Amino acid sequence: QASASPAVADLNITHMATGTGTASPSQADTAMGTELFRKAPASKIAGTNMFTCKLILLPAESNGTITELGVFCNGTDTSGSGTLISHASCNIVKTATTKYLLTWKLTLAS
């Protein structure tokens, strides 16, 4: 019997992370290339098959060139902890004079 797809309500998204890895993200990824910074999302909103989480990067957080982003379930503040459920490339130059709001929308396939 095939297993059911996870429900949005079952996701325990605990952390979002930035990194400096350069490899292209893949569905097979279990970790970010080079995790730089992580913290709990500022907000999480669950819909029927969509989940939105937001990360606020304060001026002193994650400075440098961010080349990858990740979302983790069941993680802690320790780099690499939890299960990587989404991973993307980006190119964000973050300095100590900037504050960012990163919004991540995850859609579960049926």
Describe this structure in words.
A hairpin with a 3-residue loop joins strand 3 and strand 4 (50-57). The protein has 110 residues and is an all-beta fold. It is built from no helices and 7 strands. The model is unreliable at 1-5 (pLDDT under 50). The chain has a 4-stranded antiparallel beta sheet with strand order 2-1-5-6, with no helix packed on it.
Fold blueprint:
Layout: E1 13-19, E2 35-39, E3 43-46, E4 50-57, E5 64-73, E6 83-94, E7 100-107
Short description:
This protein is mainly beta. It has no helices and seven strands.
Number of strands: 7
**Fraction in beta strands:** over 45%
Mean pLDDT: 90
The best one-word shape is globular
Widest sheet: strand order?
A: 2-1-5-6
- Helix content range of the residues, please? under 10%
Parts with pLDDT < 50 across at least 5 consecutive residues? 1-5
Task: Describe the oligomeric state of these chains in a short phrase.
Answer: single chain
What integer value in Å does the Rg equal?
14 Å
Largest sheet: 4 strands, antiparallel
User: Tally the helices: what do you get?
Assistant: 0
Structural class: mainly beta
- N- to C-terminal separation? 16 Å
Secondary-structure element order, as H and E?
EEEEEEE
Give the key terms.
110 residues, single chain, globular, four-stranded antiparallel beta sheet, three-stranded antiparallel beta sheet, disordered N terminus
